[in-house]
Design a protein that fits this description.
Blueprint lengths: L2 H20 L9 H7 L2 E7 L5 E5 L5 E6 L4 H20 L9 H15 L2 H7 L6 H11 L3 H11 L5 E7 L5 E5 L15 E2 L4 H8 L2 E7 L5 E10 L2 E12 L25
Helix pairs in contact: 1-3, 1-4, 3-4, 6-7
Length: 270
């Protein structure tokens, strides 16, 4: 990221914090409609559209935001906060909303996280012993998705770890849809990784709603520990620690990540 881009992000994020102050936001969940009105969004409509949302200039200096009524409530809130971000970028930078521009879209996502989960609200709410149930409570409190909550909490840097969001497929397999983490926390999985539903530990996960777990990466021998909870067809894992390679195991290219026993001593298999 260039110095210019970093400076732009800092200015826009500061503008987002001032917006929260100007609108006297004092508690969660944040009143996004109040923020939207303050930046000139005069109308918010929910329609059957294919996009998550759209910002439309009305021609009289006002704007409207159209949201997909088919999107989950948390997604609609994030989309509205994202569109507010576009107006903040336009107001404090080059006058253009730059919709579709990669760096601008990423910046608007950061603004959305700042507006939905202000640091001054999140920081006191995060305990050092945060577990996966704690992420659920925070997501409910701030009316955000678990993915967005995980990204925000972990990147504020108060806790270290990775929240893995797995989607259960019709064949029983688990596909990793998101893995927000703190920077520098190495993971054996990346979004899109699939765990075969026939693996013993995947079947074991299906038999319990929550519990502790341990995972050893088969190539590096690095040990990961945390806990998990199952919510319908979504399974959440939160790895809190990533230990060094297990002595005597070394590197070996045997099974692919996720193909060995997931539950170690003290893990969910006991």
């Amino acid at each position: 990221m260039s110095a210019e881009t970093t400076g732009q992000a800092r200015r826009v994020l500061e503008a987002a914090r001032r917006l929260l102050d100007d609108c006297a936001i004092e508690r969660a969940p944040v009143d996004l409609v109040r923020l939207a009105r303050h930046v000139g969004i005069g109308r918010i409509r929910e329609l059957d559209i294919r996009l998550d949302g759209q910002l439309v200039e009305l021609g009289d200096g006002a704007y409207e935001v159209i949201l997909s009524r088919n999107a989950p409530h948390t997604r609609r809130r994030f989309t509205l906060a994202h569109e507010i971000g576009h107006l903040l970028v336009a107001a404090h930078e080059n006058g253009s909303m730059s919709c579709g521009d990669g760096p601008t879209e990423e910046l608007c996502n950061r603004v959305a996280a700042e507006l939905l989960m202000p640091g001054r609200f999140i920081n006191p709410a995060v305990a050092e012993d945060l577990d996966v149930a704690g992420f659920r409570r925070l997501a409910t409190r701030f009316q955000c998705s678990l993915e967005a909550t995980g990204w925000r909490v972990l990147n504020l840097g108060q806790v270290t770890g990775a929240l893995l969001v797995w989607r259960q497929q019709d064949d029983g397999s688990l596909e990793l849809s998101a893995a927000p983490r703190t920077f520098g926390f190495d993971l054996p999985f990346e979004p899109g990784h699939v765990l075969d539903g026939d693996l013993p530990f995947v079947r074991q996960l299906a038999q319990r709603s929550d519990g502790p777990l341990a995972y050893m990466h088969p190539a590096s021998g690095k040990a990961y520990r945390g806990d998990y909870v199952r919510l319908n067809k979504v399974l959440l894992m939160f790895f809190k620690t990533a230990g060094g390679a297990v002595p005597g195991r070394g590197r070996r290219a045997a099974a692919a990540p996720g193909q060995r026993e997931l539950f170690g001593p003290g893990g969910a298999g006991e």
